[in-house]
Every structure is written in C-alpha cells, then in structure tokens.
C-alpha cells in the first residue's frame, strides 16, 4: 500500500467539509504502521469518496514484486449503498460485481432465467457456447482484473477461498459498524422445513443443548449429502431442483463449519441453539463473536483494511467483537459539518414502548403524530415503527383519527416498491416504515421530519442477546440501540444546507441517551444536549390534512367505502380501483 498518494486518488474535483483533513489523518494512520484504520465519519462526509481514495492507494501490478498481492476491494453490507456507488460518475472505476441471481441468461428461450438457474447449472456437462458473453461471467472476469472490485459483503464473504477473487492489497468496508452482527447472521444455521426438503425424515428430537445440536447436525449433513448425490445423478435438473441442490450444498458447508468449530478447543466462537417449540420444531444454531469466521472470510482477504462508518462507537469493543487486536488499529474521527440547528431533536415522549406498556402508549403516540403532521402540513414525514406490529396498530389508529389519506405503509415483500412510490409522490405523505434506519437517503424535500417510535433495543428473546446479558454485556446492549438511533437520525439531513426534524416518541430513548452518553460521538452528543419540546398545534386532524390534494382525499374516501362494503376483488374494475 502507498498511503502517500491518498490525496491524488481522491476522485472529486475538490474537497468539501472535512474530507481533506480526514484523508491526511488516514494517511498518517497507515504510515504509522497500523494494518487497520477505522474511519468514523458522520452522514454527509462523502464516505464513498473517502473509500475510493483509500482503495486507490493499493499496489498495482507494475509496482509489486512477484510475491506481493495487488489491487483493492470495496465492499458494503447494504445493496442500496452498492447501487449508489454503481450510479456515481465519480466512482466509475469501481467495477461492480453482483451475485448470479442478479443476471439473466442470454441463451435463446432462457432470457427470463437468472444465471443461477440457467442450463449451465441445470444440465450436467453443459457446454455453453456463449459463456464469454454471459453477463455474470463477463462482469466477474472484468471485476477480477480491475484495480478496485466492488461487491456486497455477502458476495465478498461467499467468495472467500475463490481462485477468481483472491487476496488483495487493500480492503475497504463501507458501513462497517455491523460487521460482527452481519457475520453472525451469515454464519447462522436454520434447520427447518424451508431449508431441509427431507425434514419429515429427520424425526427432530428435543434439542436441549449444543451436544444435541451437534448430533442433529451430523444427521442432517448425512441426509443432505445423500440427496445431493441423487440430484447430481440426473442428467438435467429443473429450476426447483437446482435451488434445492444449491441450498443443500450451502447447508452442508455451514454444518461442517459448525461441527469443526465447535470441536475446536481453541476457537473463540461461542455457539447457542434455539428450539422454541420443542420436539419436532425447527432449530437455529447461532454463533457469537465469530472471529474465526471473519478471519477466513474477511481478514485473510487483504493486507491493509479501512473500515468506514458513522457509528463505530467504541473502538475497543468493536475490535473485540470482530476479532481484531485493538493495538494494531487506529481510529480516525471526522467532524460533522452539518449545523446542529438543522438537525434538531424534539421530545414528544408519551411513555414507554416496551411490550407490556405499548397498548397504553401507542394511542398517545398516534395523537402526537397527528399533531406533528399538522405542524408539517406540506412536508413528507417518516415514522420508524421498529416492528410490523407497531406499524399495523399505528396505521389503524391514524385511520381512525381521520388522517389515513396521508399515510402509506409497506410489507416485507413490497418494501422497495412502496418506498419508491412514496418518494415519487407529490403529496405530503407519511411513510410508516420498519427497519429503514440505515442506507436511506432522504435529502431535501423527500422528507423533512421523522418520528422514532421505539428505542431499538436488541430482542432479549434472541438467545445471543440473552447470553450476552447473562455475561453482563450491558454496554454492548446500549451501544447497539444507540447505533441504530444515530443511523436513523441521519436519514433526513443529508447535506450542510439540508434540514429535518426528528421527534422522539418513546421515553426509553431519553433513558438510552443517559446510559450510552459516554459512547456518543461529540457531534451527536451536541444534538442530544439541544433536545427541546416542540411547539405543536392542538390535535386537529383537519389541519393535518391541509396540504393534501382534494383528488387524493376523494381516492382515499372511495377506497375506504369499497373496503368497508366487502371484498371487490372479483369485480372487473378491481384492478383499476386498486
């Protein structure tokens, strides 16, 4: 790596904010002998541009000795972040590669078939005459030979050990704050009817602990291997059989990894097992602190690493969670350039939103949202609902209060489409979202206000969370929630001249701020310290609808009258009405 050229590799024509100083600090950190540099950069710092400059410091083939690795990887957990990179003209030399399911086969009669189900994976010894033009293999070949290959973290981890994407000089991980949690998610093993076609042949016992889980894993692996051999014996497979084969192969690999790691007395991984409903029910085997998994999939893939995020809150805790030696890791702090008065926090807390108090608190939260809507009659708003149960109840309450015409929601399957439709809408619609605290850019009039409905604490019913709390890791618990809050607060203010208000509806958020104060970045602590009570108008649903067009109100009224009169799904015009 050549850190001295980091400024020459910056892709924009000029710096903005603290970018120049940040790159100088990163340069100094690498030149100081650190193999890993954490870059804590708030929203609007231009992290992707910083990432490109760092990646550009990687050795090239003309600069390296024969035994030295060259070039760089750029990776991020967020698909939307990779999409932004692919569309940014300043980052055009980041060569993006995606998984096979994102590409369509080009063979006649197969143009609607994703490459992961194409004849080359369905038919034994299939000889594709146009493989050199296949969009997936073409992109893969190009990315493998470019200076900077860009991919999602999932694809990056899956290609560990690949001859195509081997070790490189520099690895840059954007949005790296959840690296440990992402690794835990990828390494989690679900044993259920959805993942095991021969589930009924298993006779799953009551799994009382990890030794029982190990025994079950051995049996599942044996059955999966036998089924894969059967599938391989077929000259041609259908799309469903291809999916089954690939799923079983991944399952076999995961189970083998679990067995090997669990039997290794030197492994740092702690495994936990869940079986909520006892005998015959699905089983989930989960790793905690998967240092070994990350070592293989990430840390052995490069020589120098830059990890960027707004919310790497505690350097030592982060390093311990992902298996890094904190003494060999530097932290570069990038100051915030957005005026604090443009990103105010408002206290509209109505009580606790914990499960036992939610039914009492939610109606008051809904009434507050109506008042907030009246304060912003012409501006779009976002409500972070935290869960679909809260979202559903809020939608009902807001409709009962008479402001449903201004409300939009989404389900698990239609998230992207619903989000895109809301962003396109010209009306001041309010979007009730679930799990959209990250990787969402709502600059300018796309959204001017948002509500945090609930302190986003990890679910204590998750065995990993419960185990950590049993081990008294309360600092991790509060940092995890604070990280999500900070990410959420960054959705509506995206530039120095942008502005947007964040309303806090759960009193547990104020408690979180006190408990996790010492882990707050300075710029967010300043924001918290300025939290105030807003001057909200009285509860008046008609004022909340002042900015909604008459046409939208009529469409909503017709929709309500139809839905109230029974199902119309069999009507010839139901598709038009819908």
UniProtKB/TrEMBL annotation:
Q: Which Pfam families match?
A: DEAD_2, Helicase_C_2
Tell me the keywords, alphabetical order: ATP-binding, DNA-binding, Helicase, Hydrolase, Nucleotide-binding
Key word Oxidoreductase present: no
For bias type Basic residues, the affected ranges are 552-561
Keyword Transmembrane helix found: no
One molecular function GO term is:
ATP binding
Tell me the InterPro entries matching this sequence: ATP-dep_Helicase_C, DinG/Rad3-like, P-loop_NTPase, RAD3-like_helicase_DEAD
Q: Which GO terms describe its biological process?
A: nucleobase-containing compound metabolic process
**Domain (ATP-dependent helicase C-terminal) ranges:** 388-511
User: Region entry Disordered: which residue ranges?
Assistant: 528-578
PANTHER family cross-referenced by the UniProt entry: DNA REPAIR DEAD HELICASE RAD3/XP-D SUBFAMILY MEMBER, REGULATOR OF TELOMERE ELONGATION HELICASE 1
Name recorded for this polypeptide = ATP-dependent DNA helicase
